[in-house]
Design brief:
Layout (H helix, E strand, L loop, with lengths): L1 E9 L6 H10 L6 E12 L7 E10 L2 H7 L6 E3 L20 E3 L3 H12 L5 E3 L5 H12 L35 H11 L16 H17 L3 E3 L4 E7 L2 E7 L4 E3 L3 E3 L6 H9 L4 E3 L2 E10 H9 L16 E3 L5 E8 L3 E4 L9 E4 L8 E10 L1 H4 L6 H17 L5 E5 H6 L17 E3 L8 H15 L11 E6 L6 E3 L13 E3 L10 H25 L1
Parallel strand pairs: 5-6, 5-11, 6-7, 11-23, 19-20
Antiparallel strand pairs: 1-3, 1-4, 2-3, 8-9, 9-10, 12-22, 13-18, 13-21, 14-15, 15-18, 16-17, 19-21
The structure holds flavin-adenine dinucleotide.
Length: 538
C-alpha cells in the first residue's frame, strides 16, 4: 500500500476532491487507483479565510513498485508502514501465577486488556466503584452532595479521564504504533470511527462511560477478573522482590508480577509506597487556574468566517508564555465547548479540571492556565513534598471558597487589576456546585500570580479577547500531572523492587488518556515476557 502525505485541499472541497488530488499528484488514470483510505486528516487554519485540510492517505494502486520508484525523491510518497499490533507473548497452559493490575484508569485498563488478550487472566484491583455507580457519586458531588473520597472524578472504573473532554492525542514518540492499538480498542468499544483519522480526536464524557463498560466485559470474557472497592493498602516485599499485597479489607493476594497504575491522585498509596521503601522521587508539575471564555469568541478568533464549520468543530488553542520572573505559563487540557468541574478527591479541598461532551456544544471554552513548578525551587527536601504543596493549595482554595466546595473565582479584568470581583459579567461560570467571587491572588504563591498576570495579556495578542475583562478564572488547578516519579528500569520494573511495574500517569510515565493507555501496553508486554521467563525457569 502507498502512503501519500501532505495532500492539501480546501476546507469545503467536494466529494471527488481527494480522488482528483491523488490522480493529480501521482499522474495516474482513475482506473489505476483501486481504493484509498484516509489515515489522518488535520487542518491548517493559519489563513482563516482559506483553511486547508491536510490529508495522509493510504492507497491501493496499479504498479505500486514502479510508482514508488518514480517518486523515490518525494518524501510525501512512501510505502505505508504496517501499524497492526502484534502480540509479544501468549500465556502457556501451565502458568501457575496470575498477574495483578492495581488501578483501572486508562493505563490499568490497557495493561489488563493486553494481559487478558495474551491469556494471562489478570486480576485487576480498583479502589473505586464500577463506572455507573461512580457516575452517580461524581455527578452527585457536583450537584452539592457529599464528596465520596473513594468514588469521584479521580477514583473508580475508567480512572481520571472518564469524565473528561476525552482528548486522545499525545506528544509521546510511538514508533511501534501502540497508539493505533489504543484507538482501535476504543473504536471496538464504541468510540466513533473518526478517532482513527482526525488529527485531534476526542470522545467526550458519556461515550467514555459506555466504552469503559464494554472493555470491562471483554476482559472478563477473556478470563480476567475485576474487583471494585478493592484498595491496595500494603505490598508484601521479601529481599527486594514483590510477593503479593494486602487490600483494605485485609484480604491478601499473592503474585510476583504487579502493575501499579494508580494515577496521580492516590496520595495515600504514594505514602504507603514510600513508607515501604519503594524508590520514589519528586518531579515537576504545574499550578494555576481554569480560565473560561465564550467558545464563540475562540471560534471566531481561530476560524474567522469558517467558525461553526462542522469539520473544524469547536476551536481549541495552545498557548505558552515565558515570564520575566523565569516562570513558564501555559494552557493545558483545553476543553472546547465544555465545563469546569470539581476534581477533588480529598475532603476539604477544592481542585478544578475540565470536561465536555462529544458535541462540545456548551457555551464556554475552558482550559487550565498553569505555571510550571519544580522540586529544586518550590518544594525541596522530601520526595513527597509536592503532594503536601498540592494539598495546602487545595485546602486554601476550599477555605477561600467558603468551606462548602464552592471554588474561588475572579473576573480576568479584576485579577489583572488586583482587586476582588464583586459581580459576574457576560461569561457565566460553568463550575458546580458554585463559585465564590473573591481575589484569587491569595490562593497561589506570589510568583505564580505574577507570571499569570503577565501571561494573560501576552495570550491576548494571540487570541484577541483572551484578556477580556469579564472572562473568568476559577481555582485551583493543582493536578496537572503526578508530583512524584516511581522510578523504573529498562525492564519496566521498579528500580529497587522486582516484580513491581510502576506505570501510567501516577508513576510519572504518562500524561493523558492516550499516553497512559500506551504505557499500559508497554508494561503489559514487559510483564508478560518476564512471566514467561519465570515460568520457563521454574
Ligand atoms: P488514572 O486514570 O488516575 O487511574 C488510576 C486508577 O487507580 C484510579 O481509578 C484509582 O481509583 C485507582 N487507584 C488509586 N489508588 C489505588 C489503590 N491503592 N488500589 C486500587 N486502586 C487504586 N487526559 C486526556 O488525555 N484528555 C482529556 O481530555 C483529559 N481530561 C481530563 C479531565 C479530568 C476531569 C481529569 C481529572 C483528567 C483528565 N485527563 C485527560 C487526564 C487523564 O485522565 C489522565 O492522564 C489519565 O486518566 C491517567 O491514566 P492512569 O491510568 O495513569 O491513571
Amino acid at each position: 500500500m502507498l502512503r501519500l502525505t501532505e495532500i492539501k485541499l480546501p476546507l469545503n472541497h467536494d466529494e471527488n476532491g481527494i480522488t482528483a488530488a491523488i490522480l493529480g499528484k501521482l499522474q495516474i488514470k482513475a482506473e489505476q487507483l483501486h481504493s484509498f483510505t484516509v489515515f489522518k486528516r488535520g487542518f491548517d487554519a493559519r489563513k482563516k479565510t482559506d483553511i486547508q485540510l491536510i490529508y495522509t492517505l493510504d492507497l491501493e494502486v496499479e504498479n505500486e513498485a514502479a510508482l514508488l520508484a518514480s517518486f523515490a525523491k518525494d518524501p510525501h510518497v512512501k510505502l505505508s508502514p504496517d501499524t497492526r499490533y502484534q502480540f509479544v507473548a501468549q500465556a502457556p497452559a501451565n502458568l501457575t501465577e496470575r498477574p495483578i493490575v492495581i488501578g483501572l484508569g486508562p493505563c490499568g485498563l490497557f495493561a489488563g486488556l493486553l494481559l487478558a488478550q495474551m491469556g494471562f487472566k489478570p486480576i485487576i484491583l480498583e479502589r473505586g466503584k464500577e463506572v455507573r455507580e461512580r457516575t452517580k457519586d461524581t455527578f452527585g458531588f457536583w450537584r452539592g452532595k457529599e464528596l465520596n473520597p473513594e468514588s469521584n472524578v479521580q477514583y473508580g472504573e475508567g480512572g481520571a479521564g472518564t469524565f473528561s473532554d476525552g482528548k486522545l492525542y499525545s506528544q509521546v514518540k510511538d514508533p511501534k504504533h501502540y497508539g493505533r492499538k489504543v484507538m482501535s480498542e476504543f473504536v471496538a468499544a464504541g468510540a466513533p470511527d473518526e478517532i482513527m483519522y482526525v488529527s485531534k480526536p476526542h470522545i467526550g464524557t458519556f461515550k467514555l462511560v459506555s466504552m469503559v463498560e464494554k472493555m470491562r466485559a471483554t476482559i472478563l470474557a477473556l478470563g480476567g477478573e475485576i474487583r471494585f472497592s478493592s484498595r491496595v493498602d500494603k505490598l508484601h516485599i521479601a529481599d527486594g522482590q514483590l510477593t503479593g499485597l494486602t487490600l483494605a479489607s485485609g484480604e491478601q493476594l499473592h503474585s510476583k508480577h504487579v502493575v501499579l497504575a494508580v494515577g496521580h491522585s492516590a496520595r495515600d498509596t504514594f505514602q504507603m509506597l514510600y513508607d515501604q521503601g519503594v524508590y520514589v522521587e519528586a518531579k515537576p508539575f504545574s499550578i494555576g487556574f481554569r480560565i473560561e471564555h465564550e467558545q464563540s469568541m475562540i471560534d471566531e478568533c481561530r476560524f474567522g468566517p469558517n467558525a461553526g464549520n462542522p469539520i473544524l468543530g469547536a476551536a481549541d488553542y495552545k498557548l505558552v508564555h515565558h515570564g520575566s520572573n523565569n516562570r513558564t505559563v501555559y494552557s493545558f487540557c483545553m476543553c472546547p465547548g465544555g465545563t469546569v468541574v470539581a476534581a477533588a478527591s480529598e475532603p476539604g479541598g477544592v481542585v478544578t479540571n475540565g470536561m465536555s461532551q462529544y458535541s462540545r456544544h456548551e457555551r464556554n471554552a475552558n482550559s487550565a492556565i498553569v505555571v510550571g513548578i519544580d522540586p529544586e525551587r518550590d518544594y525541596p527536601g522530601h520526595p513527597l513534598a509536592g503532594i503536601e504543596l498540592q494539598r495546602q493549595l487545595e485546602q486554601l482554595a476550599f477555605k477561600v471558597g467558603g468551606e462548602n466546595y464552592q471554588a474561588p473565582a475572579q473576573l480576568i479584568g479584576d485579577f489583572l487589576a488586583g482587586k476582588p470581583s464583586k459581580e459576574l459579567g457576560e461569561v457565566k461560570p460553568s463550575y458546580t456546585p458554585n463559585i465564590t467571587l473573591t481575589d484569587l491572588a491569595q490562593v497561589l504563591p506570589d510568583f505564580a500570580i505574577a507570571a499569570i498576570r503577565e501571561a494573560i495579556p501576552a495570550f491576548d495578542r494571540q487570541i484577541k479577547g483572551f484578556a477580556k475583562a469579564d472572562g473568568l478564572l476559577t481555582g485551583v488547578e493543582t493536578r496537572t500531572s503526578s508530583p512524584i516519579c516511581i522510578k523504573r528500569g529498562s525492564d519496566y520494573q521498579s528500580i529497587n523492587i522486582k516484580g513491581l511495574y510502576p506505570a501510567g500517569e501516577g508513576a510519572g510515565y504518562a500524561g493523558g488518556i492516550l499516553s497512559a493507555g500506551i504505557d499500559g501496553i508497554k508494561v503489559a508486554e514487559a510483564l508478560a515476557l518476564a512471566m514467561l521467563d519465570a515460568n520457563n525457569t521454574s
